[in-house]
Amino acid sequence: MTKPTLPAQAALRPHDVGNRPPGETPPVPDGQRFETVLAHAEALGQRVVLEGLLAVADRLGLYARPYVLSVMFTPPTNKTRMLFTVWPEAAGMRMWVAADAFEEFFPEISADETRRQLGPADQERLLDQTAAREFSAGLERLFRRGPPSGRQV
Predict the structure, then answer these.
(1) Rounded to whole angstroms, how far apart are CA atoms 140 and 36?
(2) Rounded to an integer, what distance in angstroms lies between the CA atom of residue 69 and that of residue 133?
(3) In the predicted model, what is the mean pLDDT of residues 80-109?
(4) How much is the pTM?
(5) Could you tell me the residue ranges of all domains in the chain?
(6) Exposure winner among 2, 7, 39, 79, fewest CB in 10 A?
(7) 3-class SS string, the chain
């Protein structure tokens, strides 16, 4: 079985703390980019779900910023601002979506449309595999006009 290709992205800068939801873990060192969080996801039976989210975000041009136990997805123009964050748990993929950040960085996408396509925002929620696929499909619909360029803020 071929190992999936992970996003090729710029080096993580430890001083970038970003806009983290409560309980998010610190950034991982550069040499361990995705290894730590993927190993954690695998131990919890959530690696396939996390890899699916990484793949759709990479395809859409979003930046995936790994932490020890979570991944924060950001606009390509501001890698310290969270669009959504996921962290694997045994019961599924815990998630937080910041609908207003989508509107801030992608003015063509309203916060209301983000909620319609991605589901509840500004609160924790738990996704099973089916809900994670639905979330990914919602991301695809939000950005159906092509990869996001993002606004500098």
Answers:
(1) 27
(2) 21
(3) 96
(4) 0.76
(5) 30-142
(6) 2
(7) CCCCCCCCCCCCCCCCCCCCCCCCCCECCHHHCCHHHHHHHHHCCCHHHHHHHHHHHHHHCCEEEEECCCEEEECCCCCCCCCEEEEEECCEEEEEECHHHHHHHCCCCCHHHHHHHHCCCCCCEEECHHHHHHHHHHHHHHCCCCCCCCCCC
Q: What percent of the chain has pLDDT over 90?
A: 69
pLDDT of residue 145 exceeding 70, the answer is: no
pLDDT digits (tens, 9 = 90+) for 26-50: 555 555 678 999 999 999 999 999 9
Residue 98, both tokens? 């910041």
Q: What is the C-alpha separation between 18 and 4, in angstroms, rounded? A: 27
The architecture of the domain spanning 30-142 is Alpha-Beta Complex (3.90)
* Single-letter code of the amino acid located at 8: A
* Per-residue pLDDT at 122: 94
When computed from its CA atoms, the radius of gyration of the chain, rounded to whole angstroms, is 14
Angle at 81 between CA 101 and CA 46, to 5 degrees: 95
- Supply 106's token pair: 């992608």
- The whole-angstrom separation of Cα 142 and Cα 120 is 15
Q: Rounded distance, CA 57 to CA 5, Å? A: 13
